[in-house]
Design a protein that fits this description.
Layout (H helix, E strand, L loop, with lengths): L7 E3 L7 E2 L12 E3 L7 E2 L12 E3 L7 E2 L12 E3 L7 E2 L12 E3 L6
Length: 112
């Protein structure tokens, strides 16, 4: 089962540590993705490339530390991004540039 028609996917409160571009490549209709309260330390470049319909992404309460250039590639329709409580030290130059429609960016409680 590919769950290709999913619009909302909640994976909060699990034990995810790394995200790569294969994880959500079949869920091309996703609009809301909640990954809060995991142990995510690493998000590979182009992880969300197939999720061009995504409107809201919640990565809060993870262990990201660095937001890399290329992580949000393809998210042209994203309107809300929650990166609060992630311990972020660095947001690499132009990493948020692909987010043309971003209306809400939550960066509370980080080290930037």
């Amino acid at each position: 089962m590919t769950l290709a028609r999913l619009v909302i996917l909640g994976l909060a409160d699990n034990e995810l540590t790394t995200l790569d571009k294969r994880m959500f490549s079949m869920q091309t209709h996703l609009q809301i993705l909640v990954l809060a309260r995991n142990y995510i330390q690493d998000i590979k470049i182009r992880t969300f490339q197939a999720n061009q319909h995504l409107k809201f992404l919640d990565l809060s309460h993870n262990k990201l530390r660095v937001v890399q250039f290329g992580v949000f590639y393809g998210l042209k329709r994203l309107q809300g991004l929650n990166l609060s409580f992630c311990g972020i030290d660095i947001i690499q130059k132009q990493s948020l540039e692909p987010l043309h429609n971003l209306q809400v960016l939550d960066l509370r409680f980080n080290r930037i």
